[in-house]
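Sample entry (314 residues):
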Amino acid sequence: MFQNSITRLFQIELPIIQAGMIWASGWRLASAVSEAGGLGIIGSGSMYPEVLKDHIQKCKAATSKPFAVNVPMLYPNLQEHIRTIIEEKVPIVFTSAGNPKTLTAQLKSHGIVVVHVVSSARFAVKAQEAGCDAVVAEGFEAGGHNGREETATMVLIPSVMKAVDIPVIAAGGIATGRQMLAAMVLGAKGVQIGSRFVASAEASCHLSFKQAVINSQEGDTKLMLKQLTPVRLLKNQFFSEVEQAEESGASKEELTTLLGRGRAKRGMFEGDMEAGELEIGQVSALLDDIIPAATITHNIWKEFNEAMINPLGE
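Predicted structure, serialized as tokens:
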């Protein structure tokens, strides 16, 4: 059995973590990845408190293995989510999009393992100082909300490794076993994977979004809305409107109005491929099928082991 600091910390079999993506990472996906030996994560950012509670309870019924909840601190209902997580005895929480000091001590006082998502070595140090048990170092290639530094994963991982002593999980642009091996050669103890799991049977996002992801090509995503919170978007009508607004010097207020409410739900969950916001990573250009989450997990692990035996592929 494979063991390192991350598998021991989470009490899992494989150092493969499924990202807690809004509108995609519900209990079906999280439980499927955990059952396959990785760590499944419920994405609370798109959930009302009562919805999160339902997903946690269903995930506990579907798997006896550890799973986590991702809590983006820029979304509303933050304290309600934390109360639910504590009451339901969720073992692991991934925090993101905020100051790690906000929640870490509170969560750890209840015996919860805390991991914070960072986009720079500077923020990784802050997470370590806040008492986090590990960090996810997420490179510029990643989908969804991203760092303003625009540091790519191959540069970010060794930079974060030099800065902190706690385990580092690599994220951003990883969908295959060979990419996983590359990240771990750089020092990461595990990988967090988002886009590959969006294109899974169990992801709760709309089938039209999944199809758009596997149909995307190189260059079809771009980091946008840097004045607000940077987010990598798949190009569509909404993307073009944002691009035009930014090129014309739109203010934060004008961009906020353009973004409006429910834009991500409209695209990723309801399937409006033109007017909706479509968050996905650069690695979507490598994807060409929608398959079960367990198959994805097993395929990545198989390729990782094959790549360790024959790293040069010759």
